[in-house]
Design a protein that fits this description.
By secondary structure, the chain is of the alpha+beta class. The protein folds into 3 domains: 115 residues, 2-Layer Sandwich (Alpha-Beta Plaits), CATH 3.30.70; 199 residues, Trigger factor, domain 2, CATH 1.10.3120.10; 103 residues, Chitinase A, domain 3. Helix content is 48%, strand content 18%. It contains 14 helices and 11 strands. The strands form 3 sheets. Strands 6, 7, 8, 9 and 10 form a 5-stranded antiparallel sheet that branches. The protein has a 4-stranded antiparallel sheet with strand order 1-2-4-3, with helices on both faces. The longest helix has 35 residues. The radius of gyration is 34 Å and the shape is extended. The chain starts with a strand and ends with a helix.
Amino acid sequence: MEIIQNNIDELNATIKITLGKADYEGPVNDSLKQIRRRANVKGFRPGQAPMGLIKKDYLRPVMAEEINKLLSKNLFNYLKDNNVDYLGEPLPSIREKADVDFSKDSDYTFYFDLALAPKFDVAIDSNLNLTQYVIDVENENVDKGVEAYKNAAGKNEPAETSSEKSMLKGEVYQLNDDGSRNEEGLSNKTSLLVSKVENPDQKAKFIDKKVGDEINFDLKEVFKETEAKAMLGNNMVDFNTVKSNFAFKIEEILDFVPGEITQELYDKFFGKDKVHNEDELRAEIRSQYEKAYEQESDYKLMLDARNSLIAASSFNVPLDFMKRWMLSLEQYKDWDEEKLTAQFPQLENDIKWNLIQNRVVKDNNIEVTADEELAEAKKVISSEFVRYGIPVSQIPADMLDNLAKERLAKDNERNMVHSHVISEKITALVKEKATLTQQNISYEDFGKLFE
């Protein structure tokens, strides 16, 4: 076997691989023997068909399969052993055409096009000037946070008169044209949140009512289709054709009353003995906002660093090859060259940023340990629990550990976690070495920076 690399220019190369009969004969014969042992050929006992017949039916596909295996294995071994820094993956050459006839015992020559990674330097140092935004935590947000925790400690209590915040329990039923109850019509025992009624005229009908009152309303004016079906116990056939004259008879009025947070609830929300009173609660809420805002600020910082480093880069990428390679990928299977070309300026920046990141990682000896991956996976899973209203303090440590390990056992999940840790380390490097100018900003104005 002979492998020769021919560099066309700084960004493109052709790999020539020549296979002799001695390279592929053994694997091909072994594969044919396996087929012969399994083959059922008419006129012969199983496994006893002449090899000539087997070759007649199977030689070409077996040659193609075994030679492709040899090509792939040896091509990538060559790139690894010779420390060839390349982009994407090698593709069958469009510069050199291979003339292949797998029915012949002969030498075969194959050609592959290869994109070479550009050579460049990148520096994250004091010459990189960036703005680090410090997002102000507004007292109003802290007040809302306190209210949310008090609501979590609250409960529904009976009320004499309904308000916009009331929950009404009772029976909903269909009316005849004259306003009387339709005894054969739709009905259901249900509950209704007045605040969910969007139509102001219809909402007013449910306010200042008492237990026993009957409220006539238009079903289609009060509810969307899915809500109406839920209200009627999912037994409504067609929302578009149903007669919408309905009534609701109130059997119970409940108003939500925020509660006082006990030490037991403080411990439940934040962990044992970490918060003891409302002042400490406010401090904890402010701290939570500050941490969340810092993450958003860091995200903006890295966007700006990314744009600055790409703009300062003087290297090019082999665009024609990268387009060919991307169109060969499963994720772009529905794209054509016109669509890819239209989107390519952004994709080109993504390619450049990936190269810059890899160089920063290499130049700064950035590594990710298994413990760091596990810790990051736990953070991701904890945030998912929090989104569903489950405080981190309520997640058993062994359960969190097992869930994180299960996630890391999946290659795509592990790669995502690994990439996130790398990104965090590059962010820390930027914050340490770049020249940062701090600027206080409101959350509203910070959001406008992304417009």
